[in-house]
Amino acid sequence: MDPELLSEVVVDSSSALRTDNGSIHNTQFNNQEKSRRGDLLLAYKTLGVVFGGLVTSPLYVYPSMPLKSPTEDDYLGIYSIMFWTLTLTGVVKYACIALNADDQGEGGTFALYSLLCRNMNIGIISRKQSSSIVPNGRRKQSALGKFFEKSIIAKRVLLFIAILGMCMLIGDGILTPAISVLSAMDGIRGPFPSVSKSLVEGLSAVVLLVLFLLQKFGTSRVSFLFSPIMGAWTFCTPIVGIYSIIRYYPSIFKAISPHYIFHFFWKNGKEGWLLLGGTVLCITGSEALFADLGHFNRRSIQIAFLFTIYPSLVLTYAGQTAYLINNPNDHDDGFYKFIPTKIYWPIFIISTLAAIVASQSLISATFSVIKQSVVLDYFPRVKVVHTSPNKEGEVYSPEVNYILMILCVAVILIFGDGKDIGNAFGVVVILVMLITTILLTLVMIIIWRTPFYLAGLYFTVFFVMEGVYVSAVFTKIPQGGWIPFAISLILACIMFGWFYGRQRKIEYELTYKITLDRLGQLLSDPSVQRVPGLCFFYTNIQDGLTPILGHYIKNMKSLHKVTIFTTLQYLLVPKVAPHERIVINKLGIRRVYGCVIQYGYADRLNNEGDDIVRQVIESLQEHIQDYSGCIPSNPSEIQEQISDLQEAREVGVVHVRGKTRFHIGKSCGWFDRIMLAFYEVLHSNCRPALPALGVPLTQRIEVGMLYEA
């Protein structure tokens, strides 16, 4: 080849290579740019969903403190405590550590528990049932993990802690709307001192009644307003804070020095310790950083908190403290008093709207927690409605909504004093944080394999800090702090009673299950007929068939021509991949199949019964064809199986489930008598499982049977 031509080819090739490399570089840059923009947009949206409770806390922190003739040093010490609480808990614990402990994108105390269950054999769902989502090549279990796997007491304690965390979050859904709206509406009394406290309580109750009554319409139509409202609040309050700092006490940030904390406790002793019950409210809603992780992503929440929420709260509390140093007796109305007169009403309107948005965020979170608990069989079945066709996490439960409404309004009307509600709120806030600390430490040691000294340092710092807060808020139990304990105790009894009864039923079914050999014997009886039609026979166990089947065949003397034994299997994962949702297997008996429908706790159950039937039949047809490909079989036989399936569907579909009750005999112990009787009360008043799948009433058959307890 001509050397000149060769050099041209080389030059052209290198130019093309540079062009390709440049194109790849540009593509990567564009993708990174889109990712940054996406994170910033999500960070903006988190303002209206995640941080409502946290960023509105200045409304009620100072009014909740029982201050008596506070001095400048007292206020500097209080601000120093709040600054370091926000920094250690908000920045270090949640933004930097907890957000990394997600369970496939989901956060919260229950996600931590499910993460531990999936890595240790301690949960209600066995490894066999959740094998599709347990990672391969698991490392050897740690000593602490082995202890939890062997100790039944440790398993129960861990389960109780997780249940308590869920109950406390539900209690948060009652107290946040009450204290937020009441504190915001109390601003009316500033310009109009003649307005009575009872009138403010009545107006707050009306606002909450309207808010709860609007829940059934969902938040999709108004959610676009949430972020602008919270954005306005987040940026207005620190501006007022800066103005207050400049005007009243420019050197306020010297209180960042921890020595003000030591001086505060040295001077005030027990009184200073008791004030922690009020200062803990500055971190109200911090659990939402972690709990709402599934709706956004780690980076967007970190950006929003570190660059907007955290600076906003630091400046707002600094401004409030600066004002109170010069006006020490205004602490009972520590928020509205430090607002300049000229912007009082705009701030009042923004604060009221922000309180409503914060309330909505906690109400929605409560619905979500209840839904997850129902899905995992920890809570009696209640109606769950998806209010948005596009957002699976947007749910509504009528029963839960009206119970929340009654309790929330009752809290305002009975305990109208903001201090009493603040006392109750402090108990909820700190116990949820303490539970997160315990579970997160276990995740560090058992799953992350964090060096023991680092995990110990984390546990020591936060357990001691939160333990001191707990000791302070527990003194407030007679003054309103008993409210969340009463609510949580009732909920925990309901959850434990339901869980205990469900476990006893499963134990009975496993003991008296119908094996495939026994089913073959039952069907070989000449008096048993195979009637036309397609039957979905629901069973709670996979290793065998429910004893209700034997009861049904013995009494009805029939079984449908095509019968699919169906198990609804809820896995300890947020979502199950579509191709893993329906698992089909042949049972070795002609026209009898097994089917497992798998869901995660954040999955949306399909509300169309016909759609479930269609999905199962399609999966079954694929299974028949794939199975015949693995094992040589007659093509006519395959076609016959498929045509039998289609013919049975055309004749009619029926869904059969058991309606079982416990027969409590004289041999039962007192504990079983109480728990199973309580379970029967819950079971008789909850919704059946089939309506959750949208099965039409005309296609449902319930077979009654007594289980010997």
UniProtKB/TrEMBL annotation:
It is found in: Cell membrane; Membrane. GO terms for molecular function: potassium ion transmembrane transporter activity. Belongs to the HAK/KUP transporter (TC 2.A.72.3) family. Potassium transporter. It is a multi-pass membrane protein. Residues 532-707 form the K+ potassium transporter C-terminal domain. GO terms for cellular component: plasma membrane. Keywords: Ion transport, Membrane, Potassium, Potassium transport, Transmembrane, Transmembrane helix, Transport. Pfam families: K_trans, K_trans_C. The chain crosses the membrane at residues 42-63, 75-96, 157-179, 199-217, 224-246, 272-291, 303-323, 343-363, 400-418, 424-448, 455-475, 481-500. This is Potassium transporter. InterPro entries: K+_transporter, K_trans_C, K_trans_N. Residues 43-518 form the K+ potassium transporter integral membrane domain.
